[in-house]
């Protein structure tokens, strides 16, 4: 009888535990899953934050997150092609195709589809051979997704306006697609399904929906990234949320304007608080707005050259025509003031109502990025990431996503954009699940300006009163040395007369400088904020004879030295069949949700 009771209660206990822990498991399974971030940054034009993913049996990779559908990974063969200059991709890790085939974890599965080059990195020109579609497992966070849809990067490079090709630094993590659990590909025999990460996690009940929420954060000032599948960190969403249909590679959002704004303190610019109309000025063909894409694989702010020039006309920068980028003039006294100030580049987006807008602000400390080898030779160079190259797809990349939240609920074919916080955000996340039926998401209660307290400098009037730019002002050619020998026996030598003249000139200049400084001091005390004259509007941007003009129209030196424009030593087949898209051409009563048609 005692044995029966023990067995009976053991049976009851087992049944009870089964249902109890099954329920607990189900609850845990429905929680959003967090991706793990690398402790270091990657890229020759960042550095940029990246997530850690294990592909196949043991290929540990750092990937830039933020593209729909497939995950792009760099293969070990890529390093063999770029061995002469060093394989920069090896820092982020590469995928061993041969090993995966030998271990039977990965294969092309007979898939014939090769993604167009433009899909790998919107806003950039990508050249090289055809991409290879691939299937292998992917471990992200504590979840494994078998048969993940991958694309191998084996020979492709980024092509810049000067004709140079540069290797990629890291691959890119796919974050799902509208109404898609997997992708079906044609083979010579039967269709093959390759899974997408959030779709597969939702299908098997690991997360509450086929969705994601992303804020990549930044390396400087340091702010860890946030990527959740099945939900998002509400602390990373501030203010209004823009809602758009389909995906961010298929449906551009409407950029209505770009402006420079001084949020707090004195202005390091020629204006006091705001300079708008930078998107369309000096461009009669653009119209009143511009469709732009969002892509976490793309590094820059790829915009029309007229727009970049409009912005650059207010900044101490030098245009590098080879790279299509703007180098910060670090010799200019206004450079450290601008990049540390409480000033922003503000992007105004239009909602479907054509009256409501969303503004995403990017502080200049996030626009003071660094170019390193192989993009530049020698010492690293600070640069401003407005990019004038590409193949016609205007795109907001990682430079924008440092300060923007990007998310989607693929169950409803909706994706979201909002302002993200600065580095003073709460350390512990406030994770909110995205349900299958959700067509909108809610923002948190953070104050955006407060999230930057202590991380930017609130300038004083005295600090910004540093005088005109110090670089490139002297454009005269030096005269040849004078003859220092004596004349015909009388008077002073030419050298002596030159010395006396120089001394007299120095005295005069000293008096003039003292008078000028006294006048400036009195003017500053009088409260004048107009320190420099604005750039002449007739310059049609900021270029004159190839020289960039900065604040006040001052010349910031000669154009950047052109690099060798010869193609790479390894000749690669160009993709001549790619079809490129063509473009034609703040807050009331709390956060709102704006939907685009």
Automatic annotation (TrEMBL):
Tell me which InterPro entries the record gives.
Answer: PEPTIDASE_A1 (IPR033121), Peptidase_aspartic_dom_sf (IPR021109)
Q: Quick one: signal sequence residues?
A: 1-29
Q: Which residues form the Peptidase A1 domain?
A: 59-418
Top-level taxon: Eukaryota
Signal keyword on record: yes
Q: Which UniProt keywords apply?
A: Membrane, Signal, Transmembrane, Transmembrane helix
Task: For the region Disordered, give the residue spans.
Answer: 466-490, 527-597
Question: Keyword Cytoplasm on this protein?
Answer: no
- Membrane-spanning ranges: 496-519
Q: What is this protein called?
A: Peptidase A1 domain-containing protein
């Amino acid at each position: 009888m005692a044995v029966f009771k023990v067995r009976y209660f053991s049976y009851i206990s087992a049944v009870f535990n089964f249902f109890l822990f099954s329920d607990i498991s189900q609850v845990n399974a429905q929680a959003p899953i967090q991706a793990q971030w690398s402790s270091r940054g990657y890229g020759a034009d960042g550095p940029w934050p990246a997530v850690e993913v294990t592909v196949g049996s043991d290929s540990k990779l750092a990937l830039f997150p933020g593209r729909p559908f497939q995950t792009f990974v760099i293969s070990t063969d890529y390093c063999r092609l770029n061995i002469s200059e060093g394989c920069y991709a090896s820092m982020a890790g590469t995928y061993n195709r041969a090993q995966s085939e030998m271990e039977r974890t990965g294969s092309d599965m007979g898939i014939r589809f090769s993604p167009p080059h433009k899909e790998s990195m919107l806003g950039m020109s990508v050249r090289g051979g055809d991409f290879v579609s691939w299937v292998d497992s992917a471990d992200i966070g504590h979840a494994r997704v078998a048969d993940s849809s991958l694309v191998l990067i084996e020979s492709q490079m980024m092509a810049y306006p000067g004709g140079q090709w540069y290797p990629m630094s890291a691959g890119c993590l796919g974050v799902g697609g509208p109404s898609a659990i997997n992708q079906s590909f044609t083979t010579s025999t039967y269709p093959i399904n390759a899974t997408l990460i959030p779709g597969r996690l939702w299908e098997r009940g690991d997360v509450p929906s086929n969705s994601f929420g992303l804020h990549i954060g930044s390396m400087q000032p340091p702010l860890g990234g946030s990527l959740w599948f099945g939900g998002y960190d509400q602390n990373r969403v501030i203010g209004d949320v823009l809602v758009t249909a389909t995906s961010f590679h298929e449906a551009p959002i409407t950029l209505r304007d770009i402006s420079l704004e001084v949020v707090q303190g004195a202005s390091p610019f020629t204006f006091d608080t705001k300079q708008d109309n930078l998107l369309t000025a000096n461009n009669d063909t653009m119209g009143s707005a511009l469709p732009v894409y969002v892509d976490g694989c793309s590094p820059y702010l790829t915009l029309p050259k007229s727009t970049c020039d409009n912005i650059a006309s207010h900044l101490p920068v030098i245009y590098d025509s080879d790279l299509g980028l703007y180098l910060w003039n670090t010799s200019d006294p206004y450079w450290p003031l601008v990049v540390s100030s409480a000033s922003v580049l503000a992007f105004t987006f239009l909602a479907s109502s054509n009256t409501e807008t969303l503004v995403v602000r990017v502080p200049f400390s996030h626009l003071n990025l660094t170019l390193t080898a192989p993009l530049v030779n020698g010492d690293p160079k600070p640069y401003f990431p407005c990019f004038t190259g590409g193949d016609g797809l205007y795109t907001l990349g990682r430079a924008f996503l440092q300060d923007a939240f990007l998310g989607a609920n693929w169950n409803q074919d909706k994706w979201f954009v909002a302002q993200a916080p600065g580095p003073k955000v709460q350390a512990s996340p406030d994770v909110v699940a995205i349900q299958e039926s959700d067509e909108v998401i809610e923002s948190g209660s953070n104050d955006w300006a407060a999230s930057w307290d202590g991380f930017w400098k609130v300038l004083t009037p005295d600090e910004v009163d540093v005088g005109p730019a110090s670089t490139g002002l002297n454009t005269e050619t030096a005269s040849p040395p004078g003859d220092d020998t004596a004349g015909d026996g009388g008077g002073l030598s030419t050298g002596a007369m030159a010395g006396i003249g120089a001394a007299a000139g120095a005295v005069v200049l000293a008096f003039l400088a003292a008078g000028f400084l006294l006048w400036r001091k009195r003017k500053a005390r009088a409260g004048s904020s107009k320190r420099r004259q604005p750039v002449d509007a007739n310059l049609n941007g900021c270029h004159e004879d190839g020289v960039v003009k900065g604040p006040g129209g001052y010349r910031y030196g000669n154009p950047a030295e052109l690099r060798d424009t010869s193609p790479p030593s390894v000749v690669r087949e160009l993709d001549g069949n790619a079809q490129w898209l063509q473009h034609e051409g703040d807050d009331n009563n709390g956060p709102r949700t704006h939907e685009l048609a």
